[in-house]
Amino acid sequence: MKTYLKLVFALIFFIFVWFYNNQKTLSPHDCELDFQVKCNTQEQGLTLDIHASMPVMLETSNKVTINLSKPSSDLKAWLSGQNMQMGKIPIQVKRVNSNEYQLSVVPVICAEANMIWNIELEIELLDHNTSIKQDVMFETQR
Predict the structure, then answer these.
(1) DSSP per residue, the chain
(2) Which of 3, 51, 114, 141 is 20 to 30 A from 126, alpha carbon to alpha carbon?
């Protein structure tokens, strides 16, 4: 009986690990603004067109425009440092219409000369009440 229970628990564990590892997620590096002013990515049938003025300046409001291929009910955004833990800083989001948003991103000066940043997006779509998360990476230099 003990062997049977061990096998059942092992099977449940392997199914859990397989399910967790096979969830569809995008790598944070799918959208890097360092090398391009425009970034396109797709997730669950949604196309995101992300535009930013480059280079991103420190201690200055940098405009980032996000166009979505499907209407959304809400978009939330946070800024966080990748090579230095700085917490999650809320980003001001302005809704232009149901498919377009403008972000005001203000990276701060820190001890690191070259800083890697991540903009974490959380998009609520109108259809199917779907929530999509997307990371957008960029780098700043002092």
Answers:
(1) -HHHHHHHHHHHHHHHHHHHHTS----GGGSBSSS-SEEEEEETTEEEEEEE-SSPPTTS-EEEEEEESS-EEEEEEEEEESSS----EE-EEEEEETTEEEEEE-PPP-S-SEEEEEEEEEEEESGGG-EEEEEEEEEEE-
(2) 51
Please give the class, per CATH, of domain 29-141: mainly beta
| pLDDT, tens digit, 9 for 90 and up, residues 3-36 | 877 776 666 766 655 444 443 333 444 566 655 5
Contact between residue 85 and residue 57 where contact means Cβ atoms under 8 Å apart: no
Tell me, rounded to whole angstroms, the distance of Cα 106 from its chain centroid. Answer: 16
Alpha-carbon gap, residue 79 to 66, rounded angstroms = 15
Rg (CA), the chain: 19
Instruction: Give me 37's structure tokens.
Output: 């002013």
The pTM of the full predicted model, rounded to 2 decimals, is 0.71
